[in-house]
């Protein structure tokens, strides 16, 4: 039997009286693109931030390849092969696109010392160039990231998460604020990355066409709970999900 890359069991997190995540369990298998959908405020980002060590859950266990990683710091998780993108852009506007990628990997490598004294490139340039080609952003690679359109910056932001060659990448709303004409491009890019880099992805996204087309399985969260987990076809046909979410 294949072991899950990510296993979340009984995750809970409350903010005062608000039970943001109220006992969430799911598994992500190797090579799987796992979607997370649900209305605003249903606990998706809180679940993400718990998995990523950004916040400490009240209860529950998070395992990466069978290893308990509950409460690990974002830096430790990054070293263990967990990458992420945020709901909002994290690029450095004044730096070139290529330098943004290199710096993202240097942060992964860690210490201030290595950042100050490592030779300017240390092999990361080749990695950055490979991603720049795969993301088809060669024509803007030497521009300041801040000069790019929002959609292009989003691509840079996603590429940054892949510099550390992560085994698992969590993407929080990769299409948010992106021009609809670019959404299909992000989808085929993620499919391509999934195929060529054999990583597993967890993707939060509101764009239903995008999720249904991209993801192998989808988890529906409502009010901090898991309402359903299934293939896109199963989720589309789920009466409870239709009533609570998709039908609206
Ligand atoms: N730092 C926080 N402090 C207080 N309440 C929070 C905080 N983060 C999230 N919440 C609340 O937890 C619930 C879930 O939020 P969130 O995880 O952001 O949902 P989603 O990402 O699905 O929109 C919401 O009611 C939100 O207001
Ligand atoms: Mg959110």
From TrEMBL:
Transmembrane segments: none
Gene Ontology molecular functions: ATP binding
Gene3D superfamilies for the chain: P-loop containing nucleotide triphosphate hydrolases
Location of the ABC transporter domain: 6-248
Record's keyword terms, sorted: ATP-binding, Cell membrane, Membrane, Nucleotide-binding, Transport
One Pfam family per UniProt: ABC_tran
SUPFAM superfamilies linked to this entry: P-loop containing nucleoside triphosphate hydrolases
InterPro entries: AAA+_ATPase, ABC_AA/LPS_Transport, ABC_transporter-like_ATP-bd, ABC_transporter-like_CS, BCA_ABC_TP_C, P-loop_NTPase
Protein's name in the database: ABC transporter ATP-binding protein
Organism whose genome encodes this protein: Pseudaquabacterium inlustre
Taxonomic placement: Bacteria, Pseudomonadati, Pseudomonadota, Betaproteobacteria, Burkholderiales
């Amino acid at each position: 039997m294949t072991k899950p890359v990510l296993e979340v069991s009984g995750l809970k997190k409350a903010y005062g009286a608000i039970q943001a995540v109220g006992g969430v369990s799911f598994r992500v298998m190797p090579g799987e693109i796992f979607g997370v959908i649900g209305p605003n405020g249903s606990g998706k980002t809180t679940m993400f931030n718990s998995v990523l060590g950004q916040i400490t859950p009240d209860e529950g266990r998070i395992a990466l390849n069978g290893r308990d990683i509950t409460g690990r710091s974002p830096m430790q998780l990054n070293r263990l092969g967990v990458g992420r993108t945020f709901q909002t852009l994290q690029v450095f506007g004044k730096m070139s696109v290529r330098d943004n990628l290199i710096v993202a990997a240097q942060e992964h490598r860690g210490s201030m010392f290595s950042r100050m004294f490592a030779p300017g490139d240390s092999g990361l340039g080749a990695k950055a160039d490979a991603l720049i080609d795969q993301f088809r952003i060669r024509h803007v690679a030497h521009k300041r990231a801040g000069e790019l359109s929002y959609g292009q910056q989003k691509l840079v932001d996603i590429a940054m998460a892949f510099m550390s060659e992560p085994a698992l990448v969590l993407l929080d709303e990769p299409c948010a604020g992106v021009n609809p004409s670019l959404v299909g491009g992000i989808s085929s890019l993620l499919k391509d990355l999934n195929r060529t880099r054999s990583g597993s992805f967890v993707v939060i996204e509101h764009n239903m066409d995008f999720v249904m087309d991209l993801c192998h399985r989808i988890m529906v969260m409502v009010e901090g709970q898991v309402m359903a987990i299934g293939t896109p076809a199963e989720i589309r046909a789920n009466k409870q999900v239709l009533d609570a979410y998709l039908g609206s």
